[in-house]
Amino acid sequence: MYEERYETPANGVVSTPSSIGPLGVGARILIGLLLVGLELFWRDPKWWDPIVALGTAALIAAFMATRAARRQSPLAATGPIAHALNVLVAIPLLFLSATSGGALLFYGGSMLLAAAHRNAGCEVTAFSNAVLGRDDQVGCALFGSVDLAERAWTSPSSGTPSATE
Q1: Which of 3-7, 39-43, 148-152, 158-162 has the weakest average pLDDT?
Q2: Which of 94 and 12 is assigned the larger pLDDT?
Q3: Which residues are 2's β-sheet partners?
Q4: How far apart are CA 44 and CA 1, in angstroms?
Q5: Mean pLDDT for all residues in the chain
Q6: Domain boundaries, given as residue ranges, for the chain
Q7: How many CB atoms lie within 10 A of CB 140?
Q8: How far apart are CA 138 and CA 135, in angstroms?
Q9: Contacts of 124 (CB under 8 A, 6+ apart)
Q10: Confidence at residue 16, expressed as pLDDT on a 0 to 100 scale
Q11: Where are the beta strands (DSSP E) in 35-92?
Q12: What's the pTM?
């Protein structure tokens, strides 16, 4: 389930090689705006929704900071079990009335942040990655296939010109 993919260079800065191309950026912007729009225009927003969203981001950042203090290598929980656990956590957050608005704001805002930073993987770690300057990855059932397809399409070995050429 956990795969240590990256090494820390001599300067102690963890590299962040995971980035997305235009398809991944566009998908995250579209879904991020949709989720924030659902909260603002479809639901009846509650005063506590932004608190839940910011609290969720802070809780994940605190957890990831604690993990980073113990292990410098980025988290790479990107296997099928990590994907399933991520979905199992998201579903109740999105459907319980007390947390659904905050979850829509958190996930939507995180997707927009991931798009802005061109972070691959799940939006769950977008805020903590931005704050901590890391590249922690958690399996993402929503964007995993988009990122995989885009990497295959832009890979130099696929015969198709890469986005960086």
Answers
A1: 3-7
A2: 94
A3: 77
A4: 39
A5: 84
A6: 29-151
A7: 23
A8: 10
A9: 60, 86, 110, 138, 140
A10: 40
A11: 76-77
A12: 0.81
- The token duo for 151 is 């990497």
pLDDT reported for residue 25: 94
Distance separating alpha carbons of residues 5 and 8, to the nearest angstrom: 10
Are the CB atoms for 85 and 141 separated by under 8 Å?
A: no
Given a contact cutoff of 8 angstroms between Cβ atoms, the answer to whether 37 and 102 are in contact is no
What is the structure's pLDDT at 156? 65
pLDDT at residue 157 in the model = 60
Query: How many Cβ atoms are within 10 Å of 56's Cβ, its own excluded?
Result: 20
Alpha carbon distance, N-terminus to C-terminus of the chain: 33
Q: Are 136 and 129 in contact (CB under 8 A)?
A: yes
E strand map for 37-156: 76-77, 137-138
Q: Is 74 left (phi over 0), alpha (psi -120 to 50) or beta?
A: beta
Residue 39's contacts (CB-CB under 8 Å, 6 or more residues apart) are 45, 49, 101, 104, 105, 108
Asked if residue 4 lies in contact with residue 84, where contact means CB atoms within 8 angstroms, the answer is no
